[in-house]
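Page 47, continued from p. 46.
Same chain as before, 283 aa.
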Amino acid sequence: MLISRLGYIGLNVDDLDDAVRLFETAGQLQLNRRDEGRAWLGAAGRHHWVVLQQDLDRPTGLTRMAFEIDPGVTLDDAEKVLAEAGVVCERRADFRTDLVRECVRFTDLDGTEIEIFRGLAGVAGGGAPKWARLERLLHVAVTSPNFDLALDFYTQVMGLGVSDFIEDTTAFLHASDGAHHSLVLQRRPGQSRAANHVCFQAESFDDVMRARAIVRREGYELRDDLIRHETSGSIGFYFEGLPRGLGVEFCYEHGQVDPQHHKPRVFVRTLQAKDVYEPPPGY
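Result:
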């Protein structure tokens, strides 16, 4: 596998002040840098999990997905794999600008900038204390108008493994660290790429509940409240974030798979697949 985990995402927003406020309070992230039109927010000692920008000449939404390269792979290896697949990429090594030691960047077939990096910036002294303790940026779920081609690219070129499917409409993809999914692809023919949600993994269930209390106190709308997924086994909740349409999930007990031996399952699309607590018809 080329990549080990999701490192950070980039989002273009209508109002940078509002988005920073949301991710600092309800999102429980720490603002580590801000300049004209951009802000970097992170947690757990990592400089950024979310990079916000306000560019009125671009549509709002997902601008970048950045993945940390597997420790056993070099960026030369990544460039070679991408070149063999016909992907034109840019090699960069500008830490002051990019806040990663080195990376390659390219655009996927759905128009999203993809980065494969090594050496994400850290925060000296660790993160400032928040009410909810977060462990990692876990995954992002995105729609794809070219689902089959996207699935082929992310598995055959990027080397992600399939953990599970929900029918032929959703694919949960894992990287080499074995988290059940670092990327979720959702079939949406005729629609442009969009981020459905981003997920932060908390250190404990109590931290999920602490985050939920902050979200409710701040008055943000809950999208899904305390559900447990059949696929990953995680328990958590979602609230409506920014930009509009992006959900923010906090979860705990997210499952692990063995990347070498895992065989994907296929679930029927039911309420129980999304939330095992939902009773089937007749109960």
